[in-house]
Amino acid sequence: MMKHTASLVTLGLLLPALAAAQTATDAAAIGTWLKGYDAAFNAKDLEKLATFYHPEVTVYEGGGINNGWADYRDHHLGPELKEFENLQFAHLDTKVMMLPGGQSAYATSRYSLKARMGERAIDSEGLATYLLMNGADGAWRIRHSHTSSRPARRPGQ
Q1: In 10 A of CB 111, how many CB atoms?
Q2: pTM of this prediction?
Q3: Can you tell me the distance from the alpha carbon of 72 to that of 51, in angstroms, rounded to the nearest whole number?
Q4: Residue 66 in contact with residue 75, Cβ under 8 Å?
């Protein structure tokens, strides 16, 4: 009986450590996944970007709302990407929090966007919050996105 009690106590001590290690691994994987998103965004690859979004995603950006990937792609992101020249986009200081059950998470990040749109130079930064869902296929997808931006700060501002 004493052996079984000691085994249960050991297991009770190990399970939280294993769960924490898995959570850290999942969070790191999402950070890497977001770098893939940045690469697809910079390549203006809408087909690849589609793999990052849930078909029923909600996107809150610039005071507007897009409901679903097709709406976001056709009425916001697609037209915007076509106009961008010399695009440089990146997520910075990303923090990932796994939610109970391990099938969802949220990520917060700063982002930087530089590009040209015709004669206009864009140099902005902003904040992003993503609700991520892990699908039956094991792939993470953005289920909700909320971003806000402002012109990039210059030193001394």
Answers
A1: 20
A2: 0.81
A3: 13
A4: yes
Q: Which two tokens stand for residue 79?
A: 């037209």
Exposure string of 134-145, with b = 16+ CB inside 10 Å and e = fewer, is beeeeebbbbbb
Structure letter (DSSP) for residue 153: P
Residue 95 amino acid letter = K
Q: For the segment 6-30, what is each residue's pLDDT rounded down to a tens digit?
A: 555 555 655 454 344 455 677 888 8
* Residue 40: both structure tokens together: 């697809």
Partners of 148 in the β-ladder: 127
CB-based burial label for 72 (10 Å; 0-12, 13-18, 19+): buried
The model's pLDDT over 50-61, given as tens digits with 9 standing for 90+, comes to 999 999 999 999
